[in-house]
Predict the 3D structure of the following.
Amino acid sequence: MNNVQINELTNIAFPNSPYNFPKLKQDIIRLKVQELAPQVRNESTKLVQLITEAKKKSGNFSSIVDLILETKKQIALNSETSQRNKLIGKIEAYQSILASHIVDEELQTLFDKQTEVLKLEKHLESLQQNICSYQV
């Protein structure tokens, strides 16, 4: 524990000193970012490995893996029903192309990992924006 941390704990422990809630909130957000950043990197690495495996299995159709993941990402980011339905149709078409190379369970694992990484990245980005707003 360094001197800065000791001073921070001392300031919190003694009730006679006023609490600096904005600073406390900023420190908590900063700690969450420090915790979340390695998790995002690890899960992103796992996603890249899954993508690489899927592309190897799909052979000449490896570009379809990229297309299906990009389409799945668009679905996650798009809330308009008619657009989502069109994108779901594309996903089904891509899945039928890949069906002879990659089983549905493998694709679902890939989709789940992509969704997890997208959520983690979005959460990390939100926390980082909160830190920036406190520093301004």
Remarks:
- Residues 21-135 form one domain.
